[in-house]
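Researcher: Good morning. I'm working through a list of sequences from a screen, and I'd like to move beyond sequence-only analysis. For each chain I'm collecting a predicted structure so we can compare shapes side by side. This is the next one on the list. No need for commentary yet; just the structure.
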Amino acid sequence: MSRVGKMPIKVPAGVDVKVAGLNVSVKGPKGTLSLRVPDARVGLEREGEQLHVRRNGNDKKLRAFHGLVNRLITNMIAGVTQGFTKTLEIRGVGYRAAMEGQNLVLQLGHSHPITYRPPEGIQLAVDKNQTLVTVTGVDKQLVGQVAANIRSFRPPEPYKGKGVRYVGEYVRQLEGKKAAAKA
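Model: Good morning. Structure tokens for this chain:
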């Protein structure tokens, strides 16, 4: 049995979990999320304030879905109660970010500014130094994807370290070419 899949999921007070066939919806103080379970042989049972993910079978694909469904529902509950945040750091001379309404405008050394419109359910914020971008939302996958999209506009380069990186991300610095020694 899957170690992750058999762990009970605690449902905190103020969170409403509804299971209707293959659809699971979670409603909490920060919003609502829904999930369609990928396989009908994986089911949910509610026992008081806990949810249990059960599976009918033992093939390899079903064992994988068992743990996956457990983690997806756990992340949905965490999202509607606390939310998820990713912070990006912009490094480089003249590199900066600004907000224009809901849109994020990035100056990253290109010949033009890059305007990024976040998807619905995602909030972006820029600090006063215009070097930190905070991505916030209730859907963990969507927050991570938006942060990865913003990072992809100018990933950190290995020689000077300029670009957009996650806060705390380690970027290995490479040594540049050396001039040839004259004999």
